[in-house]
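dumping this here before i forget
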Amino acid sequence: MRARLLVFPIKGRNWCFIRSIDRSTSESQSSQSPTTFKQLWKNVSSSSPKATAANVELCVDFVANKMNKAWSGLEKAPPGSFKNKIHGVGLSLLSRVKPSEIFLKSIPKQLTGVEVVFPSSLNARLVRRRLRHIAMRGSIVHKNYFYGSVTLLPVTSAFAVLPLPNVPFFWILFRTYSHWRALKGSEKLLQLVSDSAKTHHENESEEKSSDSSDPPLVMEASEELERLVGDGDDVSKCRLKDICKVFDLETSDVLKYQQQKNY
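structure:
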């Protein structure tokens, strides 16, 4: 399984790191996840005792699917209803999630390689160094936030005695899941872009003479992305939308990079 990553400057030292949308992969992954407690228990009980990590991932995916279904129900609630108001609060909270976290969450453990697309004016070593930096920083930051969120779960569960939806608990539960995914994504990305990984542009002659599989890291300088980005000093919102259309990106995630402070 491979992924296409885009890296380009938006404003000054503020760079965008994002993965192209891969709908076929996401659909296949969601279809393989258990949908009921009975299916979850059957999958966990039938696996070998040594597959503890795999069982944890299965439970995490199960909880994530349940949260996504509950969120979809709130999204479809009639305007002005209580569920609709809760959905509005959720959107306000989600707007505070950093785009770098969204990017790291999009890196699954199944990845065997990445294709990094960047403007042709940038140096490939610099792009690779920035990717390593965001992966290393993410592995530290999201590990700390993950443990912090886990500690808050018992505290927020006490709000269940109130005759209202326990929004604080579900928000902390979501943040725990989000930081866990970002942590695992950071570790996987760091593995793929580390110095030990052979890149296509550094080992092109070796690849031609061997029958080995694709390299874990392929660096691709794009003239088209260079043209769309322009000078890179301050990419306009209109140009960012054009980049999203050409390279199949999530527009809302890209625009978040434009709104945040220099990373």
